[in-house]
Amino acid sequence: MAVILGIESSCDETSASVCINGKVINNEIASQDIHTQYGGVVPELASREHQRNIVPVVDHVINNAGIEVNELNAIAYTRGPGLLGALLIGSSFAKSMAASLNIPLIPIHHMKAHVLAHFIDDPRPDFPFICLTVSGGHTQILKVKNATDMVILGQTQDDAVGEAFDKAAKLLGLPYPGGPMIDKLALEGDSDKFLFAKSEMPALDYSFSGIKTSILYFLRKELKQDNDFIEKNKHDLAASIQKTLISMLMTKLVNAARQEGIRQIAIAGGVSANSGLRNTLKDEAEKNGWEIFIPDFQYCTDNAGMIAMSGHLLFEQRMFGKLTDSPLPRMPF
User: Fold this and answer.
1) How many domains in the chain?
2) Residue 214 belongs to what domain range?
3) For the chain, how far is it from start to end, CA to CA, in angstroms?
4) What is the distance, to the nearest Å, from the Cα of residue 25 to the centroid of all Cα atoms in its chain?
5) Who contacts 283 (Cβ-Cβ below 8 Å, separation ≥6)?
6) Which residue has the higher pLDDT, 197 or 129?
């Protein structure tokens, strides 16, 4: 029997989860609404909120799982990448708890955990598969050979697509986080109403800095002629922006699948919750004969369920960490 406690604290979500024999029993997330008023995550405030939340969140998931603390076999925690202060809270707590219980620690790479979230529920992909990981900080196309061997086929060379969504939303006057707001508005908009420049990168790499500039200059030009342009066209703007970003993502994903000769395709990360991306992936699957894997909404954004599942997979291989392991804000892939 393997009972793993997972702890996630890489950014602004304090989360804990219990995984028993490869089954995620629960997944609790304490979100931090305080950042909304600042238009983005404030690292120092995130750290303070993690300090406030981590004990009650961990205590609740253990009790909710119907186990005693001394039944834990290992503790998995996010080592990086992420905000240093936030990572320190989670790693320090995990180390202290593991030391007191004399059980192993399992440091987890946050982005690899997003990929392994696909093994929480059925259907599960077979190795190898292609995974597009999309979030506020990362955009990557991966060839996943097994739970520990993942190869980057392509990635953004500047901004992540999640950042592009949020900054575009800010230009439209939408509150943070803006990505979900664009998705919501896009449902009632004409996605072909406006065109924006797409950045071209070689091979399977991405660039999203150019489209932000394109949106900015476009809006400046239109607002000079009509101060109410954004308000009058908010739905169409959101739909057009979303279609452009998704088109950029899918073009490279299709190329990657053809290049590798792989038909099992997955998406992961916070942006994988976007309804437009999910629907477009389904359309591409029909055209290309793909078998696709889309995570449950609760496992798209940062969560400890994916950390606990990753911990389970690494526990089986006895891939343990040390108390001296430091958090790595820029943890290499």
Assistant:
1) 2
2) 126-295
3) 30
4) 21
5) none
6) 129
